[in-house]
Amino acid sequence: MDNPFSKLFKKQEGSVLGVDIGSSAIKVIQLKKKGSKAILETYGELALGPYAGVEIGQATNLSTDKIVEALYDLMREKEVNLTTNKCGISIPFSSSLMTLIEMPKLSYKQLGAMVPLEARKYIPVPISEVTLDWTIIPRDEREEEDLEEDEGTKITKIKKTDVLLVAIHNETIAKYQEIVNKTGLEASFYEIEIFSTIRALLEQEKTPVMIFDMGAATTKIYIVERGVVKTSHTINRGSQDITSMISKSLGITMAEAEIMKRSVGVTESNSVNIKDVVHLSLDYIFSEANQVILNFERRYRKTIGKILLVGGGSALKGIAQIAQASFQTDVIAGNPFTKTEAPAFLEDILRDTGPEFAVSVGLALRRLQEFA
Ligand SMILES: Nc1ncnc2c1ncn2[C@@H]1O[C@H](COP(=O)(O)OP(=O)(O)OP(=O)(O)O)[C@@H](O)[C@H]1O
Ligand SMILES: [Mg+2]
Protein backbone atom coordinates (compact mmCIF):
# COMPACT_ATOMS: atom_id res chain seq x y z
CA MET A 1 0.00 0.00 0.00
CA ASP A 2 1.55 3.33 -0.96
CA ASN A 3 1.86 5.72 1.92
CA PRO A 4 0.07 8.99 1.20
CA PHE A 5 1.87 10.67 4.09
CA SER A 6 5.27 10.10 2.55
CA LYS A 7 4.93 12.95 0.08
CA LEU A 8 4.61 15.33 3.05
CA PHE A 9 7.92 14.61 4.66
CA LYS A 10 9.60 17.82 3.77
CA LYS A 11 6.54 19.93 3.31
CA GLN A 12 5.28 23.22 4.57
CA GLU A 13 6.51 25.09 7.52
CA GLY A 14 4.02 26.52 9.93
CA SER A 15 1.12 24.10 9.51
CA VAL A 16 0.22 21.43 12.05
CA LEU A 17 -2.42 18.75 12.62
CA GLY A 18 -4.43 17.68 15.63
CA VAL A 19 -5.35 14.02 15.23
CA ASP A 20 -8.15 12.64 17.41
CA ILE A 21 -8.70 8.92 16.91
CA GLY A 22 -12.08 8.49 18.59
CA SER A 23 -13.95 5.22 18.99
CA SER A 24 -16.40 6.04 16.22
CA ALA A 25 -14.55 8.55 14.06
CA ILE A 26 -11.19 10.15 13.38
CA LYS A 27 -11.20 13.91 13.50
CA VAL A 28 -8.35 15.98 12.07
CA ILE A 29 -7.79 19.73 12.17
CA GLN A 30 -5.05 21.58 10.32
CA LEU A 31 -3.98 24.96 11.74
CA LYS A 32 -1.36 27.40 10.60
CA LYS A 33 0.39 30.06 12.58
CA LYS A 34 0.10 33.58 11.24
CA GLY A 35 1.59 36.16 13.55
CA SER A 36 0.05 35.44 16.92
CA LYS A 37 -3.04 33.87 15.37
CA ALA A 38 -4.01 30.28 14.71
CA ILE A 39 -5.68 30.02 11.33
CA LEU A 40 -7.91 27.07 10.49
CA GLU A 41 -6.68 25.70 7.17
CA THR A 42 -8.72 22.54 6.80
CA TYR A 43 -10.45 19.82 8.76
CA GLY A 44 -11.68 16.32 8.11
CA GLU A 45 -13.63 13.52 9.68
CA LEU A 46 -13.80 9.84 8.86
CA ALA A 47 -16.30 7.39 10.37
CA LEU A 48 -14.63 4.21 11.62
CA GLY A 49 -17.73 1.99 11.65
CA PRO A 50 -17.16 0.69 8.10
CA TYR A 51 -13.63 -0.48 9.05
CA ALA A 52 -15.16 -2.68 11.75
CA GLY A 53 -18.21 -3.91 9.87
CA VAL A 54 -20.62 -1.72 11.83
CA GLU A 55 -22.61 1.35 10.86
CA ILE A 56 -21.43 4.95 10.81
CA GLY A 57 -21.86 6.50 14.26
CA GLN A 58 -21.15 3.24 16.12
CA ALA A 59 -18.14 2.74 18.36
CA THR A 60 -15.34 0.40 17.23
CA ASN A 61 -12.29 -1.23 18.72
CA LEU A 62 -9.93 -1.43 15.76
CA SER A 63 -6.54 -3.04 15.33
CA THR A 64 -3.57 -0.78 14.71
CA ASP A 65 -3.48 -1.80 11.05
CA LYS A 66 -7.11 -0.84 10.52
CA ILE A 67 -6.51 2.55 12.10
CA VAL A 68 -3.52 3.06 9.81
CA GLU A 69 -5.69 2.13 6.83
CA ALA A 70 -8.34 4.65 7.92
CA LEU A 71 -5.73 7.39 8.36
CA TYR A 72 -4.43 6.66 4.86
CA ASP A 73 -7.94 7.02 3.49
CA LEU A 74 -8.48 10.31 5.30
CA MET A 75 -5.15 11.52 4.01
CA ARG A 76 -6.14 10.72 0.43
CA GLU A 77 -9.36 12.72 0.59
CA LYS A 78 -8.95 15.53 -1.90
CA GLU A 79 -11.49 17.73 -0.18
CA VAL A 80 -9.70 17.55 3.13
CA ASN A 81 -6.32 18.16 1.53
CA LEU A 82 -4.00 17.85 4.52
CA THR A 83 -0.60 19.29 3.70
CA THR A 84 1.55 18.44 6.70
CA ASN A 85 2.43 15.40 8.81
CA LYS A 86 3.45 17.39 11.91
CA CYS A 87 0.92 16.60 14.59
CA GLY A 88 -0.13 15.90 18.12
CA ILE A 89 -2.24 12.80 18.81
CA SER A 90 -4.78 12.22 21.54
CA ILE A 91 -4.95 9.22 23.85
CA PRO A 92 -8.46 8.20 24.86
CA PHE A 93 -9.50 9.08 28.38
CA SER A 94 -10.46 5.41 28.79
CA SER A 95 -6.84 4.34 28.26
CA SER A 96 -5.71 6.45 31.15
CA LEU A 97 -6.23 6.23 34.82
CA MET A 98 -6.63 9.56 36.50
CA THR A 99 -7.15 10.02 40.18
CA LEU A 100 -6.80 12.75 42.74
CA ILE A 101 -4.83 11.55 45.75
CA GLU A 102 -4.09 13.25 49.02
CA MET A 103 -0.49 13.29 50.20
CA PRO A 104 1.17 14.81 53.23
CA LYS A 105 2.68 18.22 52.56
CA LEU A 106 6.20 17.31 51.49
CA SER A 107 8.91 18.80 49.34
CA TYR A 108 8.67 18.22 45.60
CA LYS A 109 11.58 15.81 45.80
CA GLN A 110 10.04 13.81 48.63
CA LEU A 111 6.77 13.64 46.73
CA GLY A 112 8.66 12.34 43.72
CA ALA A 113 9.75 9.37 45.78
CA MET A 114 6.42 8.87 47.58
CA VAL A 115 3.88 9.26 44.78
CA PRO A 116 4.91 6.13 42.82
CA LEU A 117 4.69 4.07 46.01
CA GLU A 118 1.29 5.53 46.88
CA ALA A 119 0.19 4.99 43.26
CA ARG A 120 0.31 1.23 43.76
CA LYS A 121 -2.84 1.50 45.84
CA TYR A 122 -4.76 3.10 43.01
CA ILE A 123 -3.44 1.38 39.92
CA PRO A 124 -4.77 -2.12 39.32
CA VAL A 125 -1.78 -3.30 37.25
CA PRO A 126 1.94 -3.56 38.11
CA ILE A 127 3.55 -0.12 38.19
CA SER A 128 6.20 -1.35 35.75
CA GLU A 129 3.49 -1.68 33.09
CA VAL A 130 2.44 1.95 33.18
CA THR A 131 3.89 5.37 32.56
CA LEU A 132 3.16 7.63 35.51
CA ASP A 133 2.76 11.36 35.61
CA TRP A 134 1.61 13.61 38.43
CA THR A 135 1.07 17.26 39.25
CA ILE A 136 0.36 19.13 42.45
CA ILE A 137 -3.06 20.73 42.50
CA PRO A 138 -3.00 24.02 44.34
CA ARG A 139 -5.68 24.35 47.01
CA ASP A 140 -7.09 27.75 47.60
CA GLU A 141 -7.12 29.12 51.14
CA ARG A 142 -10.83 28.79 51.72
CA GLU A 143 -10.87 25.20 50.50
CA GLU A 144 -8.01 24.34 52.79
CA GLU A 145 -9.87 25.67 55.83
CA ASP A 146 -13.06 23.91 54.80
CA LEU A 147 -11.34 20.60 54.32
CA GLU A 148 -9.54 20.86 57.61
CA GLU A 149 -12.80 21.49 59.42
CA ASP A 150 -14.39 18.68 57.49
CA GLU A 151 -11.85 16.18 58.54
CA GLY A 152 -11.76 17.32 62.12
CA THR A 153 -8.05 18.02 61.82
CA LYS A 154 -8.50 21.64 62.81
CA ILE A 155 -6.59 21.17 66.01
CA THR A 156 -3.63 19.23 64.64
CA LYS A 157 -3.60 21.21 61.36
CA ILE A 158 -2.03 18.48 59.30
CA LYS A 159 -1.37 20.09 55.94
CA LYS A 160 -2.12 18.00 52.90
CA THR A 161 -1.27 18.26 49.24
CA ASP A 162 -3.61 17.20 46.46
CA VAL A 163 -1.86 15.36 43.69
CA LEU A 164 -3.40 14.54 40.32
CA LEU A 165 -2.05 11.14 39.37
CA VAL A 166 -2.17 10.03 35.74
CA ALA A 167 -1.18 6.60 34.49
CA ILE A 168 -1.13 5.34 30.92
CA HIS A 169 -0.57 1.71 30.08
CA ASN A 170 2.74 1.23 28.23
CA GLU A 171 0.94 -0.91 25.66
CA THR A 172 -1.26 2.05 24.77
CA ILE A 173 1.73 4.27 24.16
CA ALA A 174 3.36 1.53 22.08
CA LYS A 175 0.20 1.25 19.97
CA TYR A 176 0.25 4.97 19.14
CA GLN A 177 3.95 4.79 18.37
CA GLU A 178 3.23 2.00 15.92
CA ILE A 179 0.52 4.06 14.23
CA VAL A 180 2.95 6.95 13.92
CA ASN A 181 5.70 4.72 12.52
CA LYS A 182 3.42 3.12 9.97
CA THR A 183 1.73 6.28 8.76
CA GLY A 184 4.75 8.54 8.75
CA LEU A 185 2.90 11.05 10.87
CA GLU A 186 5.37 13.13 12.83
CA ALA A 187 3.92 13.31 16.35
CA SER A 188 5.77 15.37 18.92
CA PHE A 189 3.46 14.37 21.77
CA TYR A 190 0.60 12.14 22.84
CA GLU A 191 -1.91 13.80 25.11
CA ILE A 192 -4.86 12.43 27.04
CA GLU A 193 -7.87 13.92 25.32
CA ILE A 194 -9.15 15.66 28.44
CA PHE A 195 -6.24 18.12 28.36
CA SER A 196 -6.71 18.84 24.65
CA THR A 197 -10.40 19.56 25.19
CA ILE A 198 -9.65 21.92 28.06
CA ARG A 199 -7.11 23.84 25.96
CA ALA A 200 -9.56 24.31 23.11
CA LEU A 201 -12.55 25.32 25.20
CA LEU A 202 -11.60 27.13 28.35
CA GLU A 203 -10.44 30.69 28.96
CA GLN A 204 -9.67 31.89 32.47
CA GLU A 205 -13.00 30.98 34.05
CA LYS A 206 -13.08 31.74 37.77
CA THR A 207 -15.87 29.34 38.65
CA PRO A 208 -15.72 25.57 38.07
CA VAL A 209 -16.88 24.49 34.62
CA MET A 210 -18.23 21.11 33.62
CA ILE A 211 -17.31 19.72 30.21
CA PHE A 212 -19.72 17.14 28.87
CA ASP A 213 -18.23 15.14 25.95
CA MET A 214 -20.80 12.82 24.43
CA GLY A 215 -19.19 10.28 22.12
CA ALA A 216 -20.61 7.14 20.54
CA ALA A 217 -20.39 4.58 23.36
CA THR A 218 -19.63 6.76 26.37
CA THR A 219 -20.07 10.24 27.72
CA LYS A 220 -17.13 11.78 29.50
CA ILE A 221 -17.48 14.38 32.19
CA TYR A 222 -14.75 16.65 33.47
CA ILE A 223 -15.07 19.30 36.12
CA VAL A 224 -12.33 21.86 35.72
CA GLU A 225 -11.45 24.75 37.96
CA ARG A 226 -8.90 27.35 36.96
CA GLY A 227 -7.50 24.99 34.38
CA VAL A 228 -7.17 22.08 36.80
CA VAL A 229 -9.19 18.86 36.52
CA LYS A 230 -10.99 18.35 39.81
CA THR A 231 -13.27 15.48 38.87
CA SER A 232 -13.55 13.15 35.89
CA HIS A 233 -16.11 10.48 35.22
CA THR A 234 -17.23 8.21 32.38
CA ILE A 235 -20.88 7.33 31.81
CA ASN A 236 -21.30 4.11 29.88
CA ARG A 237 -23.90 5.50 27.51
CA GLY A 238 -23.45 7.61 24.44
CA SER A 239 -25.02 8.72 21.21
CA GLN A 240 -25.03 5.22 19.69
CA ASP A 241 -27.51 4.19 22.39
CA ILE A 242 -29.91 6.83 21.11
CA THR A 243 -29.56 5.38 17.60
CA SER A 244 -30.28 1.85 18.74
CA MET A 245 -33.31 2.99 20.77
CA ILE A 246 -34.70 4.78 17.70
CA SER A 247 -33.98 1.72 15.56
CA LYS A 248 -35.73 -0.67 17.95
CA SER A 249 -38.73 1.43 18.73
CA LEU A 250 -39.48 2.43 15.13
CA GLY A 251 -38.46 -0.92 13.64
CA ILE A 252 -35.95 0.64 11.27
CA THR A 253 -32.31 -0.29 10.57
CA MET A 254 -29.45 1.24 12.52
CA ALA A 255 -28.33 3.08 9.40
CA GLU A 256 -31.79 4.61 8.97
CA ALA A 257 -31.99 5.46 12.65
CA GLU A 258 -28.61 7.20 12.48
CA ILE A 259 -29.78 9.36 9.60
CA MET A 260 -32.99 10.19 11.43
CA LYS A 261 -31.12 11.05 14.61
CA ARG A 262 -28.77 13.41 12.81
CA SER A 263 -31.38 15.07 10.65
CA VAL A 264 -34.23 15.64 13.10
CA GLY A 265 -32.76 15.28 16.56
CA VAL A 266 -35.22 16.22 19.30
CA THR A 267 -36.73 19.33 17.81
CA GLU A 268 -40.34 20.38 18.29
CA SER A 269 -41.38 19.03 14.91
CA ASN A 270 -40.52 15.44 15.83
CA SER A 271 -43.07 12.76 16.28
CA VAL A 272 -43.75 12.28 19.98
CA ASN A 273 -42.43 8.78 19.59
CA ILE A 274 -38.85 9.70 18.69
CA LYS A 275 -38.77 12.48 21.20
CA ASP A 276 -39.73 10.13 24.01
CA VAL A 277 -37.17 7.58 22.94
CA VAL A 278 -34.37 10.11 22.74
CA HIS A 279 -35.44 11.64 26.04
CA LEU A 280 -35.18 8.29 27.74
CA SER A 281 -31.53 7.84 26.74
CA LEU A 282 -30.65 11.42 27.56
CA ASP A 283 -32.38 11.35 30.94
CA TYR A 284 -30.20 8.44 32.03
CA ILE A 285 -27.02 10.27 31.03
CA PHE A 286 -28.07 13.61 32.49
CA SER A 287 -29.10 12.12 35.80
CA GLU A 288 -25.73 10.42 36.20
CA ALA A 289 -24.03 13.68 35.26
CA ASN A 290 -26.15 15.50 37.85
CA GLN A 291 -24.91 13.05 40.45
CA VAL A 292 -21.31 13.90 39.54
CA ILE A 293 -22.10 17.60 39.94
CA LEU A 294 -23.74 16.99 43.29
CA ASN A 295 -20.75 15.05 44.59
CA PHE A 296 -18.38 17.76 43.44
CA GLU A 297 -20.44 20.55 44.96
CA ARG A 298 -20.68 18.72 48.27
CA ARG A 299 -17.01 17.93 48.43
CA TYR A 300 -15.69 21.35 47.46
CA ARG A 301 -18.65 23.51 48.54
CA LYS A 302 -18.65 25.29 45.22
CA THR A 303 -21.17 25.47 42.45
CA ILE A 304 -20.60 24.77 38.79
CA GLY A 305 -20.69 28.01 36.78
CA LYS A 306 -21.58 26.52 33.41
CA ILE A 307 -21.75 23.32 31.43
CA LEU A 308 -20.16 23.04 27.98
CA LEU A 309 -21.46 20.38 25.60
CA VAL A 310 -19.01 18.82 23.14
CA GLY A 311 -18.54 15.57 21.20
CA GLY A 312 -20.55 14.40 18.21
CA GLY A 313 -23.47 13.47 20.45
CA SER A 314 -23.78 17.13 21.39
CA ALA A 315 -24.49 17.99 17.77
CA LEU A 316 -27.96 16.50 18.34
CA LYS A 317 -30.51 19.17 17.50
CA GLY A 318 -32.39 20.27 20.62
CA ILE A 319 -30.01 18.65 23.11
CA ALA A 320 -29.02 21.95 24.75
CA GLN A 321 -32.63 22.73 25.71
CA ILE A 322 -33.16 19.31 27.25
CA ALA A 323 -29.85 19.58 29.09
CA GLN A 324 -30.79 23.03 30.31
CA ALA A 325 -34.00 21.67 31.80
CA SER A 326 -32.14 18.86 33.52
CA PHE A 327 -29.19 20.79 34.98
CA GLN A 328 -29.63 23.70 37.37
CA THR A 329 -26.82 25.50 35.58
CA ASP A 330 -26.23 27.34 32.31
CA VAL A 331 -25.74 24.94 29.42
CA ILE A 332 -23.80 26.16 26.42
CA ALA A 333 -22.80 24.45 23.17
CA GLY A 334 -19.01 24.29 23.41
CA ASN A 335 -17.26 26.10 20.58
CA PRO A 336 -13.68 24.87 20.12
CA PHE A 337 -13.00 27.44 17.41
CA THR A 338 -12.92 30.57 19.55
CA LYS A 339 -9.11 30.51 19.66
CA THR A 340 -8.77 30.04 15.93
CA GLU A 341 -9.70 32.11 12.91
CA ALA A 342 -11.67 30.50 10.14
CA PRO A 343 -12.53 31.64 6.65
CA ALA A 344 -16.09 33.01 6.54
CA PHE A 345 -17.41 30.22 4.32
CA LEU A 346 -16.65 27.66 7.02
CA GLU A 347 -18.45 29.43 9.82
CA ASP A 348 -21.90 27.91 9.38
CA ILE A 349 -20.66 24.38 9.08
CA LEU A 350 -18.40 24.82 12.08
CA ARG A 351 -21.31 25.96 14.20
CA ASP A 352 -23.08 22.64 13.51
CA THR A 353 -20.19 20.20 13.53
CA GLY A 354 -17.93 22.23 15.84
CA PRO A 355 -18.39 20.28 19.08
CA GLU A 356 -16.90 17.15 17.50
CA PHE A 357 -13.57 18.85 16.96
CA ALA A 358 -12.78 19.99 20.50
CA VAL A 359 -10.06 17.37 21.03
CA SER A 360 -8.39 17.81 17.63
CA VAL A 361 -8.37 21.62 17.89
CA GLY A 362 -6.77 21.43 21.34
CA LEU A 363 -4.06 19.13 20.00
CA ALA A 364 -3.29 21.37 17.04
CA LEU A 365 -3.15 24.43 19.32
CA ARG A 366 -0.53 22.70 21.48
CA ARG A 367 1.53 21.66 18.48
CA LEU A 368 1.43 25.25 17.20
CA GLN A 369 2.95 26.44 20.48
CA GLU A 370 6.14 24.64 19.44
CA PHE A 371 6.69 27.32 16.80
CA ALA A 372 6.59 30.11 19.36
N1 LIG B 1 -25.56 15.81 13.96
C1 LIG B 1 -25.58 14.83 14.86
N2 LIG B 1 -26.68 14.62 15.62
C2 LIG B 1 -26.69 13.64 16.53
N3 LIG B 1 -25.69 12.79 16.77
C3 LIG B 1 -24.57 12.95 16.05
C4 LIG B 1 -24.46 13.97 15.07
N4 LIG B 1 -23.23 13.87 14.52
C5 LIG B 1 -22.61 12.84 15.12
N5 LIG B 1 -23.41 12.28 16.04
C6 LIG B 1 -23.12 11.13 16.90
O1 LIG B 1 -21.96 11.41 17.65
C7 LIG B 1 -21.29 10.19 17.96
C8 LIG B 1 -19.83 10.36 17.72
O2 LIG B 1 -19.32 11.42 18.46
P1 LIG B 1 -17.75 11.65 18.53
O3 LIG B 1 -17.20 11.73 17.17
O4 LIG B 1 -17.52 12.76 19.46
O5 LIG B 1 -17.32 10.27 19.20
P2 LIG B 1 -15.90 9.61 19.33
O6 LIG B 1 -14.90 10.69 19.55
O7 LIG B 1 -15.66 8.70 18.19
O8 LIG B 1 -16.13 8.75 20.63
P3 LIG B 1 -15.24 8.66 21.93
O9 LIG B 1 -14.78 10.04 22.26
O10 LIG B 1 -16.18 8.10 22.95
O11 LIG B 1 -14.13 7.74 21.57
C9 LIG B 1 -21.88 9.12 17.06
O12 LIG B 1 -22.59 8.19 17.83
C10 LIG B 1 -22.77 9.88 16.12
O13 LIG B 1 -23.94 9.17 15.82
MG1 LIG C 1 -14.12 11.66 21.18
TrEMBL record:
Name listed for the protein in its UniProt record: SHS2 domain-containing protein
Provenance organism: Candidatus Zambryskibacteria bacterium RIFCSPLOWO2_01_FULL_45_21
Name of a matching Pfam family: PilM_2
